[in-house]
Amino acid sequence: MTTYQHLVGGEWVSSSRTSQNVNPSDTNDIVGDFAEADGEIAHAAIQAARDAFPAWSRSSPQQRFDVLDAAGNTILARKEELGMLLAREEGKILPEAIGEVVRAGQIFKFFAAEALRVGGEIVPSVRPGMTVEVTREAVGVIGMITPWNFPIAIPAWKIAPALAFGNTVVLKPAELVPGCAWEIAKILHEGKLPPGVFNLVMGKGSVVGETLVSSKHVDAISFTGSVKTGRAIGARCFESGKKFQLEMGGKNPMVVLDDADLDNAIASTLNGSFFSTGQRCTASSRLIVTAGIYDKFIEGLIAQMRALRVGHALEKSSQMGPVVDKRQLDQNQMYLQIAKDDGAQIFGGELLDLPTPGFYMAPALAVDTNNAMRINREEVFGPVASVVKAANYEEALALANDTEFGLSAGICTTSLKYAAHFKRNAEAGMIMVNAPTAGVDYHVPFGGRKGSSYGPREQGSYAREFYTTVKTTYINPL
Ligand code: ADP
Questions:
Q1: 146 Cα: distance to centroid of ligand 1 (angstroms)
Q2: Measured on CA atoms in the order 82, 88, 93, 94, is the torsion positive or negative?
Q3: Which of 229, 378, 379 has most ligand 1 atoms within 8 Å of its beta carbon, as the pocket-test mutant?
Q4: What angle do CA 275, 280, 283 make, to 5 degrees?
Q5: How far apart are CA 92 and CA 86, in angstroms?
Q6: How far apart are CA 95 and CA 224, in angstroms?
Q7: Is residue 1 scored above 80 in pLDDT?
Q8: How many other C-beta atoms lie within 10 A of the C-beta of residue 234?
Q9: Who lines ligand 1 at CB under 6 A?
Q10: Which residues pair with residue 40 across a beta bridge?
Q11: Which residues participate in catalysis according to the annotation?
Q12: Handedness of CA 61, 63, 66, 69 (dihedral sign)
């Protein structure tokens, strides 16, 4: 079996250690052996990015457009094959995986054009004769640390804007899913990106991630992952004076009001809670339902949840794939037990024995919970949602906001009044009306508030806040 290597300074580099990328739908299927770096390789990649920075940060926007647009085209042209790889290494079903690949391609093409749209301002000075220019420049070497749940889209939405604005990059993908990141590296490498502008270093967070965070030669860190790791990284970046951006967890509420369109509410919740096996930071994990629709909604949701076909990610009939690994499967089961011990009634959640050995469980709903229970306070990150009953809209809104997170919040209602009030008063970065809490466009900002996010938004034109630094120049023409 070939070993997939790191990309450092335009060269493929091996390391003495490797790790196996295992298909969670079938643990007999090994996606590949991937090199696992030590600190030395990570340092070499950082140095390569440093060396490449002066030329790349001064390259013409056309050069950056061409590289990124071509990468986007290649990704789109290879969507089936890359989708297959993604489904094999992460476990989301093939149509979702292809959808994610398409999104990555679109992101590259969007940011290709952003390279041409940086712009600036000329402002009259308050001092006679003087003018002021406000321009943007690249930040420097960006270290990127990404999670396993979107193996191609998350690397894409960090790499593309970083390169578009003239930064150089060292990416450390999640240990469980290095395959898609490796393919992006290959596409950029073959797409005439100058050596060292983009570097891929695979390996452990505690080794490679740690080296990126502690290096004096890294100017900024973009992180997506757990709250615990994110907060620790943020503190370290602050100490060493690095710019940083953190996307962390969610405990996203989906409010369903008495006047909701029942079919839409059930379909939106089913999608938000269980699609992608619930492994999305924007998943609807707290369903807050008002009393008048409660019984009908729960009954309909459980019926549709039970009808979801769980199976191998590449099987045509599958509607939900496996959990990503054993550790996550155990965590999901542990939270179901905690909810049960706290008095919840559990529907679904059984471990499933399917024809291929994988990490399969049925989607689960914890009913009769209250918002103080652990199942409603902590992120599970699996196909597990819980239900809290609310007397009315006001109580539902208060419950929705009673969380330390603030990524996405949804409401199902046919009332313009409640929808508008919720949009204004829900404490979240993204609001969804009559739509799943998960599932976002590629050209508008993504991010949250409170414990979910820190720093400027990702994606869309807002991405430039993180990937550029502003310079104010005063010119006295004499
Ligand atoms: P999860 O529990 O979902 O794997 P983590 O926050 O642990 O979430 O992982 C997200 C990313 O952060 C991964 O790429 C992981 O390797 C990396 N990571 C984990 N620990 C550290 C660390 N101490 N320093 C830097 N990166 C880390």
A1: 8
A2: positive
A3: 229
A4: 70
A5: 8
A6: 24
A7: no
A8: 20
A9: 145-147, 172, 174-175, 205-206, 209-210, 213, 225-226, 229, 233
A10: none
A11: 247, 281
A12: negative
Structure confidence by residue, pLDDT tens digits, 230-254: 999 999 999 999 999 999 999 999 9
**What's the CA dihedral at 23, 27, 30, 34 to 10 degrees?**
70
Q: Which helix (H) or strand (E) holds 273?
A: helix 262-274
Q: What is the mean pLDDT of the chain?
A: 97
Q: Which residues contact 228 (CB under 8 A, 6 or more apart)?
A: none
Contact by Cβ (8 Å): 242, 219: yes
Q: Please state the pTM of the whole predicted model.
A: 0.97
Long-range contacts of residues 325-333, Cβ cutoff 8 Å, at least 24 apart: 325/22, 325/24, 325/176, 325/359, 326/359, 328/279, 328/359, 328/381, 328/382, 329/359, 329/361, 329/382, 331/380, 331/381, 331/382, 332/361, 332/364, 332/380, 332/381, 332/382, 332/383, 332/384, 333/361
DSSP, collapsed to helix, strand or coil, labels residue 433 as strand
pLDDT value, residue 278: 98
Place of tokens 């615990």: 228
Residue 282 has pLDDT above 90, yes or no: yes
**Predicted pLDDT at 97:** 98
Q: Apex CA 379: angle with CA 411 and CA 148, to 5°?
A: 105
Structure tokens at 148: 């396993």
DSSP letter at 404 equals: S
